[in-house]
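> Could you send the ABC transporter ATP-binding protein prediction when you get a chance?

Sure thing. Input:
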Amino acid sequence: MANNAGTLDIRHLSKHYEVEGAPLQVLDDISLRIEPGEFVSIVGTSGCGKSTLLRLVVGLEDDYKGDVLLDGQRIVGTSLERGIVFQEHRLFPWLTVEDNIALGLLNAPLTPGQKRFEVRDHIALVGLKGFEKAWPHQLSGGMAQRVAIARALVNRPEILLLDEPFGALDAITRTHLQQELQRIWQAEGITTILVTHDVEEAVFLGDKVVVMEPRPGRIRRIVPVPLPHPRNRATLAFAEIKDNVLAEFSGDAALSATSSPVVEDTRATKVAPDVPVTVF
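Output:
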């Protein structure tokens, strides 16, 4: 396990927005503890506040009730301690693969030589050795997302946040990148939170699956996934856990067990230009 893996403690978190002069409750009394190095998947129908929850953890908003604590300290603003990857890779088209990843170290207290080493190390970590000088338009969608993951990890944050990172990819690429993400997570030992609409993906990757109910967003149930890695989707044990999670949505709008590029809240992808470069 990585020494810099963080402990996230969310305590009685509630959040509302003003819509046409009236309060709209988005999150209601969310409490969740995530241990160092743990991989937690969060699933729920559109509108349950999953992306809003990630936005609060990354520090993009501070107007809420309750506490969001990283290693016992309240999160205030964005920080290099928290890296995030969105559904869109957000690579700069005028920069090469290595230069896009190096942006994650722009404010890091490292020498130029140390930065070059970290970039090379993370290019190898995501399996893109040989593509250092490639431009984003020369990459497939899956390769571009690998670059985005490397950029989020290159300064070794305490927590990696993933907001539907594979939602726009085809099923074969998505399955392959799920396996790659599992490998990267095991290699880095980093605390990871994945938001997804894909129950199979949530069970394949997570140590536990947090099931949320919508309007306002609450935690309905936390389902442990006591299966060893690497996981086999074809086993009875895997199918039973997947069905157990899906059963929680029997009365809700249909939740897909396969990939579907649903955008829950477009505000989750709007980041101010002065946000630290791990947030793309």
